[in-house]
Amino acid sequence: MKLHIERDAQQMSVKFAGWITDYIQEVLANQDRFTFVLSGGNTPKILFAELAKSPYKEAIKWEKIHFFWGDERYVPYEDLRNNARMCFEELLNKVPVKAEHIHIMRTDISPEESTEEYEAILRSYFGDAETTFDFVLNGMGDDGHTLSLFPGTAVIHETEKWVTSFFLSIQDMYRITLTAPVVNKAACVAFMAVGENKAKVLKEVLEGESNVDLYPSQIIKPEKGELHWFVDEAAASLLTK
Ligand SMILES: O=C(O)[C@H](O)[C@@H](O)[C@H](O)[C@H](O)COP(=O)(O)O
């Protein structure tokens, strides 16, 4: 695991934007497409704002990128809480992406239908390949959740399905989410965490004992791929190493 600690959220976004630009370029030197999983939440917004402007806007071959989502809140696309909507507003509407390369988790059909549809899309991309996505961007909630893998939920332990949906009673909504098996087959996964609210949980996730039911972010460990954490000094403030 590689830990990148930057002064504040802004610095972290700049560092991350430069790093992901180089990584995309490297991957595209050897293959024709780049598969990128986007994340919801507030933290990615500052990264998206960065990527949508110079020099990244011009440097990244956006037309070669295929976009997916790590999870979705089962609310209509028009709802401000919808993760796909946020990513379109903050990034995808501002850079030259190809509409046919964008795969949102649909919320205009039932959660079960949406899950099945997404699973089929992913299987059509990756089939039995040893590696799935080129890159997965993850956030981490103050409670240690990532994707829609919330503490104490059964979905943390899913071993077969790549996509699933369930009713999240603490938020009174359905969630659609990628699962650990498909994310852990990615070539590269990066978490972003900023702010003092994340400090305690970050310490537990990175330095505490393994307890994936309490700290689901711990279950994300690419089998063969790279794992990066981009954090700011406030989030890193309790780390000892
Ligand atoms: O839909 C979601 O809720 C997200 O995908 C979720 O997993 C998010 O990444 C974390 O909650 C962190 O969110 P913040 O960046 O807002 O802290």
CATH architecture: 3-Layer(aba) Sandwich
- Name the ligand types: 6-phosphogluconic acid
What is the name of the CATH topology? Rossmann fold
Q: Kindly estimate the percentage of residues that lie in beta strands according to DSSP.
A: 15-25%
- How many strands in all? 9
Placed side by side, the strands forming the largest sheet appear as 1-9-8-5-2-3
* Fraction of residues in helix: 25-40%
Return the string of H and E elements. EHEHHEEHHEEEHEHEH
Catalytic activity: 6-phospho-D-glucono-1,5-lactone + H2O = 6-phospho-D-gluconate + H(+)
Domain Glucosamine/galactosamine-6-phosphate isomerase: 8-229
Function: Hydrolysis of 6-phosphogluconolactone to 6-phosphogluconate.
GO molecular function, one term: 6-phosphogluconolactonase activity
Task: Give an overview in words.
Its EC number is 3.1.1.31. By secondary structure, the protein is an alpha/beta fold. It has a single domain (2-236), classed as 3-Layer(aba) Sandwich (Rossmann fold), CATH 3.40.50.1360. Helix content is 32%, strand content 20%. The chain has 8 helices and 9 strands. It has helices spanning 9-28, 43-51, 56-59, 83-92, 111-126, 180-183, 199-207, 233-236, and strands at 2-6, 34-38, 65-69, 71-73, 135-139, 163-168, 173-178, 188-193, 226-232. The strands form 2 sheets. The protein has a 6-stranded parallel beta sheet. A 3-stranded antiparallel beta sheet has the order 4-7-6. β6 (163-168) and β7 form a beta hairpin. The longest helix is centred in the N-terminal third of the chain and has 20 residues, at 9-28. It is globular and about 45 Å long. The mean pLDDT is 97. The structure holds 6-phosphogluconic acid. 6-phosphogluconic acid binds at residues 39-43, 70-71, 73, 83, 139-141, 145-147.
